[in-house]
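Figure 6 in text form: structure in, sequence out.
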């Protein structure tokens, strides 16, 4: 066989084809992670967005959770102040003929219910506005928020009663401790239940 012919055939075999190049490029694209967009919804302030970009990089794309948690703490803090104010007012207005257990129990229940309503409206509009469960109707969201928060309210009352009557600390301080502890429960369960993805007929 002619040596030049063999060399030509060998070069054709060794020369990468277009199909092979496309295959390699496809594999590289699949292996190389695509650049993700920000996990959060950008704000109108560039400085805030830069800070959230840093949080995204450090937390592995969890800046949206940080934004929601900060927002939830802000509105939850306002609701907690309302709770404490109503609790103090109820303690003042309830008759002294009631024993301490019933006075703190009734005051705690009233304070929890009023602060719950004042907590839902701003959190529904601002904190969880981009969550999948926001597709539900306003009444459905309110009911689910109420159900989650009612469990939190019961926990608040139980914790407050425990610190007031078992640990024997001041009722106002016991109420504040209970509110802080239940804050993390409420935030978690609003993600897991209240604003969880609404199942479509295709998902069922």
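Output sequence:
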């Amino acid at each position: 066989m002619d040596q030049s012919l063999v060399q030509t055939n060998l070069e054709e075999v060794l020369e990468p084809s277009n199909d092979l190049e496309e295959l390699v490029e496809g594999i590289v694209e699949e292996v190389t992670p695509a650049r993700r967009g920000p996990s959060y919804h950008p704000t109108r302030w560039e400085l805030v967005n830069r800070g959230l970009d840093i949080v995204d990089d450090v937390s592995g794309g969890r800046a949206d959770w940080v934004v929601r948690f900060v927002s939830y703490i802000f509105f939850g803090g306002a609701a907690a102040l309302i709770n404490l104010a109503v609790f103090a007012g109820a303690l003042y207005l309830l008759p002294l003929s009631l024993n301490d257990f019933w006075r703190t129990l009734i005051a705690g229940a009233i304070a929890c219910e009023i602060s719950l309503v004042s907590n839902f409206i701003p959190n529904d509009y601002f904190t969880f506005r981009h969550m999948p469960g926001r597709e539900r109707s306003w009444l459905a969201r309110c009911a689910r928020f109420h159900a989650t928060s009612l469990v939190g309210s019961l926990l608040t009352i139980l914790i407050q009663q425990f610190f007031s009557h078992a640990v024997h600390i001041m009722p106002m301080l016991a109420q504040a401790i209970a509110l802080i502890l239940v804050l993390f429960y409420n935030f978690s369960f609003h993600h897991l239940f209240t604003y969880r993805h609404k199942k479509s007929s295709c998902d069922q």
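Caption detail: The chain has a mean pLDDT of 78.
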